[in-house]
Design goal:
This protein is of the alpha+beta class. The protein has three domains: 2-86, Rossmann fold, CATH 3.40.50.20; 107-171, ATP-grasp fold, A domain (Dna Ligase, domain 1), CATH 3.30.1490.20; 175-283, ATP-grasp fold, B domain (D-amino Acid Aminotransferase, Chain A, domain 1, 2-Layer Sandwich), CATH 3.30.470.20. It is 33% helix and 25% strand. The protein is built from nine helices and 13 strands. The protein has helices at 12-23, 60-72, 81-88, 90-99, 116-123, 146-157, 219-232, 260-263, 270-283, and strands at 2-7, 27-32, 52-55, 77-78, 107-110, 127-130, 141-143, 167-171, 178-185, 188-196, 211-214, 236-244, 247-254. The strands form three sheets. It has a five-stranded antiparallel beta sheet. Helix 2 (60-72) runs antiparallel to helix 3 (81-88) and helix 3 packs across helix 4 (90-99). The longest helix is centred in the last third of the chain and has 14 residues, at 219-232. It is globular, with a radius of gyration of 19 Å. The relative contact order is 0.16. The model has no long low-confidence stretch (mean pLDDT 93).
């Protein structure tokens, strides 16, 4: 089989996937998405991408357009277009988790700035304000009172992206200064780690300075993590969960999971698990 790993920024993850695929004897190629041009009238174009395309684009929109185009000509992708679309938008992710019966923080969406105060009062302060689309903890803010929230909304209203004028608010979950990042590959938790917040930082993103520690999830949590991945459509996913007084809550699912931080804390080869899954998918 031939595997193409399509990226728009070459990171450690893509290089490790390339290395593992070659060790396994898989014909593999790294392809820069920015170099691709598609003609909608030419059915069968770019079939040289091979039997399977693993989409690793940082740009959510580039990944969605690429997956939709490839699927239209019968080229299988991981993740699928529907999964990438669902995971790129936090509200779509939340709706999928809720439909799947996955415990998740209480979430309200206000379709304008006018509705934000009402949503915050319903949740109770402090509240977490997140962008609908975004990664690495950017623009994720904790509003401890109405004055802070008003300032955040005022800033968002000055931004030009219409998505920034739709407000996604979550309850603030009191938890240890850490969360759980699991790399779910198909129906298996390939690896799981604690992400421990940096000093003075409440967010647990590795991009925000969080450190990773090895973590072995128990059976009940493993089942929850796999079900959460299934709820958004399955594939190769980063499932984030937190510990609360009421048990585990799944708060995000990442459709283009970064795993360098997790790999530094575990013995299992995450890229090998991913490549093995991609090979199995082609053979189905």
């Amino acid at each position: 089989m031939k595997l193409s790993i399509v990226y728009d920024r070459l990171r450690w993850e893509e290089k490790s996937l390339l290395e593992e695929a070659r060790k396994m004897g898989v014909q593999v190629e790294l392809v820069d998405a920015k170099s691709l041009v598609f003609d909608s009238r030419e059915h069968g174009f770019n079939t040289e991408l091979g039997d399977m395309v693993y989409i690793r684009c940082i740009s959510h929109f580039r990944a969605q357009m690429l997956s939709a185009t490839l699927e239209s000509i019968g080229v299988p992708c991981v993740n699928s277009h529907s999964v990438l679309e669902r995971c790129s938008n936090k509200m779509l992710t939340t709706l999928a988790l809720e439909r799947g019966g996955i415990p998740t923080p209480r979430t309200l969406m206000a379709l304008s700035a006018e509705g934000v105060p009402q949503a915050a009062l319903s949740l109770g302060y402090p509240v977490v304000l997140k962008p609908l689309v975004g990664s690495w903890g950017r623009l994720v803010s904790l509003a401890k009172d109405r004055e802070t929230l008003n300032a955040l909304v005022e800033h968002r209203e000055e931004l030009s992206n219409p998505l920034d004028h739709i407000y996604y608010l979550q309850e603030y979950v009191r938890r240890p200064p850490r969360d759980i990042r699991a790399v779910v590959v198909g129906d298996e938790v390939a690896a799981a780690v604690y992400r421990v917040s940096a000093d003075g930082e409440w967010r647990t993103n590795v991009a925000r300075g969080a450190s990773t520690e090895a973590f072995e999830p128990a059976g009940e949590l493993i089942e929850l993590l796999v079900k959460a991945a299934d709820a958004v459509g399955g594939g190769v996913l980063g499932v984030d969960a937190m510990e609360s007084s009421e048990g585990y809550l799944v708060h995000e699912v990442n459709g283009t999971v970064e795993f360098r931080g997790a790999q530094s804390a575990v013995q299992t080869s995450i890229p090998r698990k991913i490549v093995e899954y991609l090979v199995r998918e082609v053979k189905k």
